[in-house]
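This protein record is not my work; I was only asked to verify it. The record follows directly below this note.
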Amino acid sequence: MSQISLPAPDAAVLARRNDIVRQLRKLAPEASLISDQEGRRAFETDALTAYHCLPLAVVLPTTTEEVSKILRFCHDNHVKVVPRGAGTSLCGGALPLEDALVLCLSRMTKVLEINTTDRIARVQAGITNIGITQAAAADGFFYAPDPSSQIACTVGGNVATNSGGAHCLKYGVTTNNVLGVRMVMMNGEVIDIGGDYLDAPGYDFLALIVGSEGQLGVVTEVTVRLLKSPEGARPMLLGFDSTVAAASCVGGIIAAGIIPVAIEFMDRPAIHVCEHFVAAGYPLDVEALLIVEVEGSEDEIDTLLDRIAEIARDYNPVTMHRSQSAEESAKIWKGRKAAFGAIGQLSDYICMDGVIPLSKLPKALDEVGWICRKYRFDVANIFHAGDGNLHPLILYNANDPMQLERVEQCGADILKLCVELGGCLTGEHGVGIEKRELMHIQFSDADLAQQMRVKQAFDPDWLLNPGKVFPLEGRSAQ
């Protein structure tokens, strides 16, 4: 994978772009259309900033009806479409093509319904993840999945990649908290999948849509499960003199039958960067840190933290510290949530997203370190330890083409390792373009062929989010 660099469009391409923009402006007059070069530049990349390409044009609808009109037009005129939320993708999932229209749902931010009796919220797909909880908080409810980018990422993007987050150890990821979607097919048809209840009739197409990365349709509305806010919650910091000891402690906690709300892992480089950035109170004399949070009544919290401390002593912690106040708890989580941005101040990086069985966590961390040393890169490990979702951040110089190629090889070796250990290529970031050529590592040719048949059933001309997910060689259609 190399940086996308295309020559200036010729007269025919410009004429087609102008014609498409002119017709779309008539079809959806209330939608914002961006066709000038500077305006399109804001959409040329996503959070995977080493790769960029100016799209044909950008359209920002505000209703499902507008999305339907736009997709029907694109279908009839064979125009490729790249759905986009906030552009926080870390695998190139929202990268455009020169001949593709970016369909950005960031203006579709309405809360359509809050129903605390049925414990659901129905929202437009462009609302931020944290916006759902903010809308339900006054009634004492919250939406559980909480990616680190929750103040920016949209629920539509969360559905596309089946996002997780720190507190998903107890409550599950997006697929466990979404009850229904309204989706527009490539031909403009609007369909409703799932509903306001746990067990919708018919085939479970909802499980197919969540995690499909905009390959099957454009989700415009989402019905999510709301949960009652806990009586209280408190994190505990456990510091260790080795990453192996910290990783082993994670397995010990889970094996004891305790499921905390979250178990987050940070190694020494991540600890120091985040502490300097936020002053969260992290210990600086340890090699690895676990943030373990439990919730419930005060008595329940104390009992659980006592038990976790007892388990942790078997792994010789350097330090154990319980949060003493709501303010301290907020600082601890602010440090964790700000980790990617904090490291971004120091260096370019790519963030891997492999998943491994918990029993293989110590071996995985040891091997990740060895792989990065082999390629001569520093690495910071920050991840959801409780469910084995690794996020090694490999530090490099994005302006050096030689480093860019080498860091991709390094990342590929880490993902291959995850598969070899019994895990998979992605937990919550998706496949996008980053992992598409590695899909053969995870799946057989027959597996991939069947997945592509599903794609083709929803999108026969392969117009939706082209160039993503499936290896370019051997595709059944283009």
